[in-house]
Amino acid sequence: MHSILAVDDSASMRKMVSFTLASAGFKVVEAVDGVDAFEKAEKQPFDLVLTDQNMPRLDGIGLTRKLREHPHFKQTPILILTTESSDQMKQAGRAAGATGWLVKPFDPARLIEVIRKVIV
Amino acid sequence: MHTPAPTSHEQRRWPREEYTTVEALPSAPSDEPLVEIPVSVVADLQDSLLVAMNDLKRLEGLLDHATANLLDRFNAALQSAEQMPEGALKAELQSSLHASVTELQFHDMSSQLLVHIGKMLKGCAYILADQALEPDENEAGMVVTHMPRNPNPVTQSEMDAGSIELF
């Protein structure tokens, strides 16, 4: 079973993401922001990271940058799921090493489709 | 955040620790036209901004409460659907619940919008105070920038699913 680290400071979004991923057969670990996510990522590997962008303490792009410096996450798909849709932000995500940029709200079927496409 | 109602023009200034950034006062352009506004009008505007900010906080609270209840009911419906005998009705119910996940993300987007609007209103109130009211001794020669540095993060006006871009 593939494991996914789902990062969002919104409890309702974490619930929606976890429900969607668990329904599709993925094991989900939740994190409340980038710092919490990085701490969890240091303790165990994940097959994919799905992260929000705007979060306190450490945002999604910052988390992506930190994870890419970690030996276990150099190749791990990292998807940023956010309300932000500007090209500037997308380019910043890409430069940080993100695998893809998903604009909220997400459609459950399309999210699962994308995850299955990029997951190793 | 609770902001107490001001009792005088001077008290309408927010505590300094709430200021977002402080910069040196730039020299004003000499050709910029000036508009005179009575202090009482400025004070009324600030009061209205405070009321609007407090209303936004209440709206945020209502949304939080409603969303928490809605998600509890969503979970209960999921569990009930799970226990139903296999068949078309169960499949239809589960499909509808899954489809509602897109719309149930309204809380996150609404909250971000409310926070941004609140910051804008607060910025307006600070700017009014800075421009129209006498500065404190320790504020002389300084200008305070209160508007959010980043643009509104939520540009969607509908709950249609957003775009997906793989790099």
From TrEMBL, chain A:
Keywords: Phosphoprotein
Pfam families hit by this protein: Response_reg
Domain Response regulatory: 3-119
Signal peptide stretch: none
4-aspartylphosphate: residues bearing it: D52
Gene Ontology biological process terms from the UniProt entry: phosphorelay signal transduction system
Taxonomic superkingdom: Bacteria
Name of protein: Response regulatory domain-containing protein
Originating species: Serpentinimonas raichei
Underlying gene: cheY
